[in-house]
Amino acid sequence: MSDKSKDKFFLESRGKLLTVKLGEQEYGVPIHEAREVVGMLNIDPVPRTPVFMKGVINLRGKIVPVIDLRLKFGLEEKTIGKETCIIVVDIQGKMTGIIVDQLIGVVTVDRENYEDAPRLGNNINAEFITGMVKLEKRVIIVLEIESALENKELIEIERNQ
User: Least C-beta-crowded within 10 Å: which of 77, 88, 134, 145?
Assistant: First the structure.
């Protein structure tokens, strides 16, 4: 993340991240992109969508697509547990739900604890990582949620609706 992007992150989110877990790894979503957290709801499947697209939910009269972040990241599918929830994010005015294993909470990040995403090599796709936060005994991977949720297949589905 360039200094300009870092400045934008701190300006828009005031250094706050909504943190969640997938497996043992903690991820952060800039707080200004998170709209709400809901428990697991009935998800209606949509035919002919990618495996990570679990379907849609009816959230107070609005149809919201739901993506399983574990599957999107290539992780093993996990049975829904009591702490599994849906984080509703707003990307350029479009609401999308992301299924996560557990909500951790909101943390405020100091600039000195925030680092650019490390360069992981040419063969590793890390475009959805915008930075990393070093806290006492943990590292939070900060998601570029728009890149993480972007998918040509889903864009094509939206166009055909």
Answer: 77
